[in-house]
Amino acid sequence: MAAVIVLAAGCSSAASHAPAPSASPAHVTSARFDGVGLTFSYPSDWQAATWNDDISLNSWMIVALSTTAQQDPCDSSLTIGGTRMKLICEQPVLQLPPGRMLVTWTEHGFRNWHKPVMTTSVSGRPASETHAMESWCKQLGGTETITVVIPRSLVNNWYQMDACLRGPGLTGAEAQITAMLGSVRIAHGW
Fold it and tell me: What domains are there in the chain, each with its CATH number?
């Protein structure tokens, strides 16, 4: 069974994430993620990683982005019917160095899921954004957690972005997360 992601509790933001400006400063280049109905841009100095083994019956990691090295988040496996499944999954970064961050995008589906209070919008869809100082991120050395939940078209399913930020430089890191969220596009039907 994959590790359960705990939603961060804290104060919410009512800001909407508008599309990122089309012109960006010359020193900032961007990369693009496109998969499972989700497209967004992020700074090209972030490292993107995907693993096919961080899957449970109800959730799976789509992509992890970090400004530091990552490792496979799952380390124990079991083979059922010829399919190898990971049993223990944690975060792809065990400790964040100062000024670094980890961002994960996951997909979830739970019967009878109760949507959180929608406080913002992402890709024109109602979404929930929370910021917390005390959360799962603290065990990585993080200072702040940003969690965004975006309901999908399929009932009881959602995308979730979790960002663990470690100071110094929180204002700049928050601006990068805001720009990434502003660039999100979700395909019709997802």
Answer: 29-186 (3.40.1000)
